[in-house]
Write a structure and sequence with these properties.
Strand order of the largest sheet: 13-14-15-16-20
Strand content: 25-35%
Number of helices: 17
Structural class: alpha+beta
Distance between the termini: 75 Å
Largest sheet: 5 strands, mixed
Helix content: 25-40%
Length: 723
């Protein structure tokens, strides 16, 4: 049994993505760590991402008019990166390198087709003429002559394996409509050439392969929408003549009369393959989708429609699919269980096996998928375009008891019930904490609520949604449409809770929340229920006036520096706060903005969105950040008191982001000039203050060392003279 699970966006690919991926992807390769991937675009840039954080860790570009011509790979032995630009120029660098002009460079004597790197072996370089060298051998003499093996043939695909202690490189070529396969073992320097069996009116369009028990299994995707298998023994006599490899049909990509026009595929295990393509039914518009097939039983296990379209590229690492969807690179988890006939038919009795329908959109499921045997678990629910026609004896199946229905099936039955019944049934469904894959089921419940909101604009179960988000450990990727609906309804309380609890909110949504929070009026917010825990200790929550009740504590500045910040009297005197010390927004808006400040983000991805923030809102937001900065500096604390309060690092980071995005506008706006001047003076005073602290750092360290050396068991008074 196989299932497609939740998905999330790794990065944008459009012109505003900020990581140089506007030209599309050339390839995706594993990074130096298990959770890292290397993205190479069809231009000048390579980017290292940490997948779980959806965060770029490094980005490198070659000079203008230079083009990276093969995917950047990681040398797992040295933790260096290897790239080739302009076909012949080799570059090698490390994480700390920034400018590729200053890293190692070697010009080779022949054009490079691809570099393959394996975790247990060094990189292997395949040249366009078919010559192969390990990177170490190539670096000994970069200008060494490279033999031309394939003459007029063109390389279409290549892959590398480790068999024991030796590299095995395999590549496929094409010449005049005929396809050839080469297998080279580098250790013994042996090369074997094979010819692929031809099929009438069809030819290979994509390849993938794996090695097991000294046998290479080559899978070929043909233009007739079928997958063929070729077995190649690794050990062959050197004197053997060129052989023609017979192909055997492994899989026919058709479902109920619909044909999957595949563009790429990957092997998941010995019994499962994933195929990306367009499902075309007669008389209907084709739909791009990602599918998982069981090759052992010739069945479609699950599918996911991709309405925004793809580039036709598919990669798979660490039980995750990577593919472009619209203008973003999407990551989707999957699960593959033991291959058996019961699993392929959706009848596997295993309480630990998650129900695939938990991951589906219940609006797309048909009535015929509600049928299940009363003695077994519910059958796997596939989407309408991927229904199986193996059995359809609905008339003879007994009525299913409500307790045996899967999450997806129960949601379908609730599709047309009244609102009261609908919400009550969902509450009962969520109370079943013992159900398998409970988190995915809760995500499915929220999806059901959101879908009903979309179909019925007057329906919005605010309290139920709040209850679910506050009591369950959810994520944005588990219910991606929830915050979109909350933004449409301007439900600021729900947005605040989501920002505080969801760890994987895209920067585009974070910016949308910020814009809504800044644009909504104070009068409207005073009538809104907002969590004020993050500001209750330093802002007057009554907000009857602009005066803010706060304790003023001397922070170590001398009188001259205090005067530089603002004209103030002795800190011990009671006074009305100056403009710089009063909060520019009400308590409700301050609490909402704090939720944005504490949310996770990547500077690279949020900066393009911040540039679209209206000037007046940008100034207001900067005023609030300046206010928080002053509050933190008054008591020399790194975090404001309260729950979910921002730290001084977060405040400073957002200040820098906002100034980077709007500095020109800030300088031109009259109302912003005074604010920038105050900010400049305050930061200058801070720099002076910490500069003075740095001067006595050595003395303070020596004092600490002396205290550690002495072990005073009794009370004592010591006088230490600092010189």
């Amino acid at each position: 049994m196989a299932a497609l699970c939740e998905s999330f966006t790794l990065c944008g690919l459009g012109p505003g993505a900020g990581v140089g991926l506007g030209g599309g992807l050339l390839a995706l390769e594993p990074g130096p760590e298990p959770d890292h991937v290397l993205l190479t675009d069809r231009g000048r840039t390579a980017t290292l991402f940490k997948v779980s954080d959806q965060k770029p860790l490094g980005c490198w570009s070659v000079k203008h008019r230079q083009v990276i011509t093969c995917p950047v790979v990681c040398n797992f032995e040295t933790h260096e990166y290897v790239a080739v630009h302009d076909d012949k120029v080799l570059r090698i660098w490390k994480n700390q390198d920034i400018n590729l002009d200053k890293v190692f460079k070697a010009t080779l004597s022949a054009d490079v087709y691809r570099i393959h790197s394996l975790p247990n072996g060094g990189p292997v370089v395949l040249f366009k003429g078919g010559g192969v060298r390990t990177l170490d051998v190539l670096l000994e003499a970069p200008q060494q002559e490279i033999e031309n093996i394939i003459s007029d043939e063109v390389i279409k695909w290549s892959e590398a394996f480790m068999e024991g202690q030796q590299h095995v490189l395999m590549f496929a070529t094409e010449k005049d409509g005929e396809f050839f396969v080469y297998v080279q073992k580098l250790k013994t320097n042996s090369l074997h050439k094979y010819k692929l069996e031809q099929h009438e009116l069809s030819k290979p369009t994509s390849f993938t392969a794996y090695i097991k028990n000294q046998i290479i299994t080559l899978l070929c995707l043909y233009s007739n929408d079928s997958v063929y298998k070729v077995l190649i023994p690794l050990h062959q006599n050197a004197e053997d003549e060129q052989q023609t490899l017979p192909t055997s049909l492994l899989l026919n990509l058709s479902v109920s009369g619909s044909v999957l026009k595949a563009t790429s595929f990957v092997v998941l295990d010995k019994d499962h393959v994933a195929v990306l393509g367009s499902l075309a039914a007669s008389g209907e518009e084709s739909k791009e989708c990602l599918t998982i097939w069981n090759t052992k039983f010739q069945t479609l296990q699950t599918s996911k429609e991709l309405p925004l379209g793809t580039s036709g590229q598919l990669w798979c690492y660490e039980e995750k699919f990577f593919f472009t969807h619209g203008k973003v690179l999407t990551v989707m988890m999957y699960k593959c269980e033991t291959s058996s006939l019961a699993a392929a038919m959706g009848k596997l009795k295993d309480t630990q096996t998650p129900d695939v329908s938990s991951f589906m959109d219940w609006n797309t499921l048909g009535d015929e998928e509600l049928v299940a045997s009363p003695e077994s678990q519910p059958s796997v629910a596939l989407k309408s375009e991927s229904r199986m026609t193996l059995r359809s004896k609905r008339s003879t199946v007994a009525k299913v008891q409500p307790d045996t229905l899967s999450v997806g099936q129960r949601l379908i039955k609730l599709k047309d019930v009244s609102t009261t019944v609908f919400e009550e049934e969902l509450r009962q469904l969520m109370s079943r904490a013992q159900m398998p894959d409970f988190q995915a089921a809760i995500g499915c419940v929220i999806t059901a609520l959101v879908n009903r909101c979309k179909t019925n604009p007057k329906y919005y179960p605010r309290n139920l949604l709040l209850q679910i988000v506050q009591t369950r450990d959810l994520s944005y990727s588990l219910c991606p449409d929830l915050m979109a609906v909350a933004l449409e309804k301007k439900d600021v309380h729900l947005l605040q809770i989501c920002l505080q609890r969801f760890p994987d909110i895209p920067e585009e949504i974070t910016y949308a929340c910020l814009q809504v929070f800044l644009s909504i009026s104070e009068a409207c917010l005073q009538r809104t229920d907002v969590n004020l825990e993050s500001i209750s200790s330093y802002i007057d929550t009554e907000f009857n006036s602009k005066e803010v009740k706060t304790e003023i504590v001397e922070n170590g500045f001398n009188a001259e520096l205090e005067q530089d910040i603002c004209d103030s009297k002795s800190p011990k005197e009671t006074r009305v706060p100056a403009d710089g010390e009063s909060c520019p927004v009400g308590p409700q808006k301050a609490a909402l903005l704090n939720a944005v400040l504490c949310s996770a983000y990547s500077e690279t991805f949020i900066l393009p969105h911040l540039k679209n923030l209206p000037a007046q809102q940008a100034v207001l937001f900067l005023r609030y950040l300046y206010y928080l900065y002053v509050k933190c500096s008054e008591n020399i604390i790194t975090t404001l008191p309260g729950v979910h309060s921002p730290t001084i690092s977060q405040i400073m980071d957002w200040m820098c982001l906002l100034l980077d995005a709007h500095f020109t506008v800030m300088v031109m706006l009259p109302e912003a000039k005074e604010l920038l001047s105050k900010l400049h003076k305050f930061v200058r005073a801070q720099v002076r203050f910490y500069s003075e602290l740095n001067k006595i750092e050595g003395s303070l360290y020596e004092l600490q060392r002396l205290n550690h050396q002495k072990d005073c068991q009794t009370y004592s008074i010591e006088v230490l003279e600092l010189i």
